[in-house]
Design a protein that fits this description.
Two copies of one chain form a homodimer. Chain A is mainly beta. Chain A folds into two domains: 529 residues, Methylamine Dehydrogenase, Chain H (7 Propeller), CATH 2.130.10; 90 residues, ligand-binding face of the semaphorins, domain 2, CATH 3.30.1680. Helices cover 8% and strands 33% of the residues of chain A. Chain A contains six helices and 38 strands. In chain A, the strands form eleven sheets. Chain A has a five-stranded mixed β-sheet with strand order 7-6-5-4-36, with no helix packed on it. At the A-B interface, α5 of A face α5 of B.
Chain lengths: 639, 639
Amino acid sequence: MDSDSILIGSRNVVFNISLVDLSENVKQRIVWPPTAAHRELCYLKGKSEEDCHNYIRVGAKLDEDRLLLCGTNAYKPLCRHYKFDENKIEVLKESEGQGWCPYDPYHNNTSLYSDGHVYTATVADFGGVESMIYREPLRTERSDLIQLNDANFISSMAYEDYVFFFFREAAVEYINCGKIIYSRVARVCKRDKGGPHQFWDRWTSLIKARLNCSVPGDYPFYFDEIQSTSDIVDSVYNSTPSKLIYGIFTTPTNAIGGSAICAFSMDDIMKTFDGAFKEQESMNSNWLRVPPNKVPHPRPGQCVNDSRTLPDKAVNFVKTHTLMDEAVPSINQPLLVRISPRNRFVAITVDPQVRTLEGIAMDVLFIGTDDGRIVKAVNRGKSGSIFTEELLVNVKHSPIKTLSIARGGISGTKLVIITNDEVQTIPLHRCSKILTCRECVGIQDPYCAWDTVTNACIAHGDIIGSKQHLIQNVFRGVHTTCQPSGHVVSAVAQHPYEKDDMDMDNKEGTICPKCSECNTNLCSSGENSVGQEKIVIYSADTLGMVVTTSVVATLVIGFVAGYFCSRHFRKNAYTNMPLHNPHNSALNGEGGASYLSPCANNKSINLLVNVPPKNTIDKNANTSSDNNKTLQKVKKTYI
Amino acid sequence: MDSDSILIGSRNVVFNISLVDLSENVKQRIVWPPTAAHRELCYLKGKSEEDCHNYIRVGAKLDEDRLLLCGTNAYKPLCRHYKFDENKIEVLKESEGQGWCPYDPYHNNTSLYSDGHVYTATVADFGGVESMIYREPLRTERSDLIQLNDANFISSMAYEDYVFFFFREAAVEYINCGKIIYSRVARVCKRDKGGPHQFWDRWTSLIKARLNCSVPGDYPFYFDEIQSTSDIVDSVYNSTPSKLIYGIFTTPTNAIGGSAICAFSMDDIMKTFDGAFKEQESMNSNWLRVPPNKVPHPRPGQCVNDSRTLPDKAVNFVKTHTLMDEAVPSINQPLLVRISPRNRFVAITVDPQVRTLEGIAMDVLFIGTDDGRIVKAVNRGKSGSIFTEELLVNVKHSPIKTLSIARGGISGTKLVIITNDEVQTIPLHRCSKILTCRECVGIQDPYCAWDTVTNACIAHGDIIGSKQHLIQNVFRGVHTTCQPSGHVVSAVAQHPYEKDDMDMDNKEGTICPKCSECNTNLCSSGENSVGQEKIVIYSADTLGMVVTTSVVATLVIGFVAGYFCSRHFRKNAYTNMPLHNPHNSALNGEGGASYLSPCANNKSINLLVNVPPKNTIDKNANTSSDNNKTLQKVKKTYI
């Protein structure tokens, strides 16, 4: 809870990890296993030993010293208010967690603490079929396919008077054409007080729209399944400041593996919600646009002063017309597309408006794959987007679960990477790893420039004073000073798939000829490399199907990918904890355990705790006591 | 028209090419340019010089010495009956070709001569919007989106009492969900005589169904765009003899490039046509299954004795219920899938029931890509399908237009490959090119076996007598005799995409590490290689947008891929000509010209005729006279 620290929820435990050196503040560790009675009940329900732990999935810092946590608690979701003293952690109260946290650690959820309320979106029943968006006491209708249809929640964030939820779900409007998953954004009003009379506990402002991430054409090609979003970032679009959300969209699990990055402006999202509604007049009708004259006043889905005074007609309309007719368009076409049978994108975070040497601002995207890689890309605005770097950060090829950027402070700006295996931080750029001018310019990384005086590739943002002696070319990747041969690094092709192809064939090669070799290469820091840190808490090898969940103290903005640098850096009042949930279970069939490991800057001390029996089939009915095991040195698996 | 010969239609000309050595029988050449008046009219309509030729697209051998040809004739389709004498070719009659042949050489068409009738499917108007299935005088309804909706015809074939058409078209049943292309098979009765009264010139038996080539799953992934089919082949499915059709299906043009091979049994196709119909009750209704009690008697779509006596109700029903409710399922899931941003599959032919050394029969598939490659694959039945070989046959990477197998006779069995650039033949196997036992067994080619006596890789089918000394392993690709190290060539993965991935990563490497290097490698025969022959008639380089069309004397079975070995080999009464049409214009934006070249078995004499001006922009208003140019030697471009 100090500055430079991060809370990471896990299985039966929440760790407080320093971002300076990834060491754990053991005094601030919260241990919260399910009771023996709850575990017994969980077994009786037919669940496995691994499932019958308390996977902590919801976290919110309510004020300076109070923290709300909710966990799966052996298939009996439970929430707790904790109070932190100097050296003491106290449980203030405990309450039922149904609707706040899923029963099953494999189910996705998202939660958000905003203006004194906790918003959650999850599956609210034991069987995992009842999707729900919830803010006490308001909830979505039960088994109403129009409101939510087997939704998989990705993220949530607050913006203006509203809270937004990003998710994918079975498309009700597509049923006559087959089965398909669509990506959605839903919106509720923060001031929603429920409807009149029997609607007192129902949303009166919930509406949703499809997110359109597609390659345009006579027959557009859609990337339909949202996997991750960034937070709302202050960016620039069409030369005007815009609030953007970057999202990762993939093809379905059994389709050709394709991933796309699309960005949506909050203005476009709001505009879609101000547009026409969609309806199906009768059971066998098509889904059609609702004529404007059929929309009641006040317009459903808007914030009103007191929703309890709304006419029944308006409340009924919004319940049966949750879906907007138009989809939210992405800005331009997909910024980047990758086609690969080997991996998909599953996580994203953005360093917005990074300035090039010439002062041009560009969003730098950090993308996690489902096989343990980090891909770096740059949205250069009108000049198109490019992939610049790719590195393998998890040699076991575990999916990247959460990416986030921890800023400033004594630990500097870092990319924090959480997989089911481990937590690690790496610098946002690897300029100093590059040894030649040509490569330094060729990587087209806005962070990096070649210093013609010292003959080194440096992060020009760290330089104060004259930058005359630095060279960079993010647009073309060549500079006459260091490339007199005139060889031009191939420009970015216009067709998005070709971009990808180039990325796979050429760009990877620029830095790292074969990514499988990354860990022995420039792409990856070796054992003694500076800046990359990792903490291993317990080993996934030994866990098989266990998915480690973690706490996110969400804030003003969302919590799926979770904020996780402490308030010192975010200049806000909350400590953020990254969520460590099995988001993309569709893509990543197996879970894994959570690693957390502290290691000092240039040291490689990995610590192993919470080690269940080696054989996953061996059930250990009392692994809760594992938390008390002392830390022990283990063979380092990877840096 | 002799044995061992093949008719190839082209621009203003039909060549008679010997399959023995690919030499042209100049005496049998038919020259048929449009008249100067037609060309002038074509220019007046705003068409280019290249479009205003006579691209011969329909061909049918009516009897021993009579041939029907139809061509685009400078945007004024025309048909002619030719009579062949010993040394004379005579035009018997000439008639309008509208409905038989498209106006635009870029448009697809198919035609079939069966039981004395010519069946054609094409676009029947100048603008190219009116798709039509035609057999004098019967035709499909004009502008009826339910019957045909912007159809792209692929092939046609006769089976039992029916004629089948394979095509892709905009899916009318999908309109409420967006725009999409579906693959279809349509069926008409050969004995259809038209309806009563005003329906005298309309089909009374035309029905169609979707072809389902998809990777199964909760959310199946569809390959929706049919590109090519084989003929009906006598194969085995589920241990029983079956009539199968192999088809190539791709993703849409602007989607991730993916190609799949699916096979359909004629039994399944017939069963689907015996199933429920689909209908849209009113304009805004969903498309739903028609209840059986609403289907009139006699059941629409069946053959009846005299369709002119059908009740109006039955005729009206079939006109408004052309579409079947169920799609035709493919046998199993796609046999093979390839995902590649570089190329797609566009042509297929099958050598059915090739026997392995142990006598197990397998269909060998030869697949052409849109970048000039031939991929060989084996359908091993329950053991799954594998790619075995890939070779670049067209160094200019022109799309393969037509593939066919020419059997027996003095020229032996050969694969005939037609691109816009050239015609060439290659042997069906390349066993003798392989020098080591390990590779010979590893290629998993049913044609090839390793001779342990002579230490050579041979085609075991040619061996008469004992085969005890031969080894082969089509299922695992290893044999202890030649691989004592025990290294196992990786088995075929179960997931179809992985198969493909393997194919791209490993299999290509088995024979040919990089296919771009194929022409200097084992994969491709060098200048002196035995068996590969090529004939170049005129150069695509100089033509730009011109698509060469060709004549297919279609027969009992279809004509898009066209039969083209002469009657001597087919044991039928017709000479077949391959169609050389711009089938896949969606995938292959540019056309090219047609090459034909005769060269003796081990010689490399390429001949160049019909050479338009080097600069495509230079218009040559009288290229029809080009046909009279004498043959001249040219630099060989590729063997």
